[in-house]
Specification:
With 281 residues, the protein is an alpha+beta fold. It has 7 helices and 11 strands. The strands form 3 sheets. The chain has a 5-stranded mixed sheet with strand order 2-9-5-4-3. A 4-stranded antiparallel sheet has the order 1-7-8-6, covered by helices on one side. Strand 7 and strand 8 form a beta hairpin. Helix 1 crosses helix 7, helix 4 packs across helix 7 and helix 6 crosses helix 7. The structure holds a DNA duplex (16 and 16 nucleotides).
Amino acid sequence: MPELPEVEHLRRSLDPVLVGTRLVRVAVRRRSVVARSGQLLEQALLAGSRIRSTVRHGKQMALIADDGRALVVQLGMTGSVTIESGAPPKGMDGKHRHVIWELEDARRMVFRDPRRFGGLTAFASEDSLRSAWSALGPDALLTAPGALAKHLVQTLAGRNRPVKAALLDQAVLAGLGNIYADEALFAAQVHPLRPASCLSSAECSAIAREAHRILSEAAERGGSTLRDYRDAFGRPGEAVQIHRVYGRTGEPCTRCNGVIESIRLQGRTTAFCPRCQDLST
DNA sequence: AGGCGATCCTGAGGGC
DNA sequence: TGCCCTCAGGATCGCC
């Protein structure tokens, strides 16, 4: 499932294809995946516009058009954006292709999302995009670890919710999802159920440092291979190799050789090592 | 008002 | 082989 590293890798792979290119036309198979206010559907999807840049904040990626309009792509759990040429894929890959753009060079860009937890959101200006993004916490990858630590110390103080719930809240920190929240907490040796307000500043710093390190490494590797993640050219990621707790319930801890356990927290599977991540401290 | 649970959605995978 | 059940969870909404 795509998290920040997958989205960043996707953005990097799309950037050279899209920047400076015009989206000639767009075909919409399922209108409900597009959110827009006022704009006509094709205009909202930047049909006829030239792409000036691609940007990202947390798990959201946006295409910025020459005239300043912006289109946010959210991948949700199963979303993908791919560049293709030639005949469309057959079979399962040919399903759930909700929006298809035709590029100047006759290649196509396809937004596909079987589960439809993702979607596309149009903004009339880059300012309105930035305004929407200001409701999110600092980007977990673009923000320096020191500043991230300071932010966590301030934000987590006085919050009673479990620290993992806070880390998953995009208004607290933008970019962490279920996988990397577990990984960051394991690396920082903090139990996911610890009340956020009870963390020491050293622990907040450790979480910030480890989250930044893990996301950076995963982004360089092209994201997680879990499920069906692929980049814009259908290449899988390699980051699954660096997972220490996620998907390893019942397996030995790589640090202490104890057994990785899992619980449900806010409806999410949460994996941790009960020996390395002490609940009582 | 912060926090939590329900909800959406479909494919993969396991059991029989 | 094929059917049925369970599980996966990001973001939003409503309720306590």
